[in-house]
Amino acid sequence: MDLRVYILTAFVLLAVINWPLNAQVLQGEQKDINQILKNTEKFSKFVVNADYAGIASAYTADAKIFPNHTKILEGEDIIAYWTLPEGVRTTYHKITQSEITVMNDTAYDYGYYEGKTKHKDGRVSSWQGKYVIVWKKVDNDWKMYLDIWNSVKPKK
Hints:
Elements: H1 3-18, E1 25-27, H2 30-48, H3 52-57, E2 59-66, E3 73-74, H4 76-82, E4 89-103, E5 106-118, E6 124-138, E7 141-151
Parallel strand pairs: 1-4, 2-7
Antiparallel strand pairs: 2-3, 4-5, 5-6, 6-7
């Protein structure tokens, strides 16, 4: 067999093996995708730091959130939802996008989230789930307009 065939075969095999690891789909202007990724990372930092002003700034003025097992929340109810009781804190929060699609001044992404909460009694609980976010471009920045999520059972 020709050396080129071996190299091509090795390349295809490597691509097929690694495809599930790199299955993130990104569609749209790269600068918009980068800003959404950056804003997602900042949002996780706001959650971990209990920075409620930062959390509020991540959403549009007319945003709605759709937490698991609750009604649709908007306005002041969004920050009330994210505000943790005294002695409780989120120690870890991560969002992993499976897809980001940008269409003009609107975008959406979906994927998985995970985190850990430290409770008053010192106990730490882990949680994870899936989500969809609809983004709007506001004053040249991307803000969350619709944010929906629900939990999934941990893998065994």
